[in-house]
Design goal:
alpha+beta; six-stranded mixed sheet; globular
Length: 135
């Protein structure tokens, strides 16, 4: 692998990580997004298209549980995208329609979340989260 390809892979990871940090902090994300970026969360089928819409969706709908812990299981990527597999653990004490539809149960939950983030020219073009409850 050439140094140039390695540098591109590192740059892609930095944009990916900046997006995740901004989402977790509840901060602005539009500056990290391509104008036509998409953000999808499956299986709920929620999300948005376009930088302004994605930022609004994140601000209005992406509420994180107060006791959320995230543990990365794996990361792979290339010069265009990063794929993370993580475990989200939290207590389902509030409605999280974007992540775990249904009434709060008050019970501990563990989700396996696979996120694919595609990057082009230093901006996120697509972020797709696929979530499944850990058996």
């Amino acid at each position: 692998m050439t140094k140039a390809v390695q540098d591109l892979m590192i740059a892609v990871e930095r944009v990916h990580d900046a997006l995740h940090t901004a989402i977790r902090a509840g901060g602005p994300v539009a500056h990290l997004l391509d104008e036509d970026a998409t953000f999808d969360v499956l299986p709920g089928g929620v999300g948005a298209t376009g930088a302004a819409e994605v930022e609004r969706f994140v601000a209005e709908h992406v509420v994180l549980p107060g006791d959320l812990t995230v543990r990365r299981t794996s990361r792979t990527g290339d010069r265009f995208r990063v794929v993370d597999e993580e475990t989200f653990a939290f207590t389902h004490e509030r409605e999280l329609g974007w992540l775990l539809p249904g009434e709060p149960t008050g019970k501990p939950v563990e989700l396996v979340v696979v996120t694919l983030t595609a990057i082009k020219r230093g901006r996120v073009t697509r972020a797709r989260m696929v979530c499944a409850e850990r058996p």
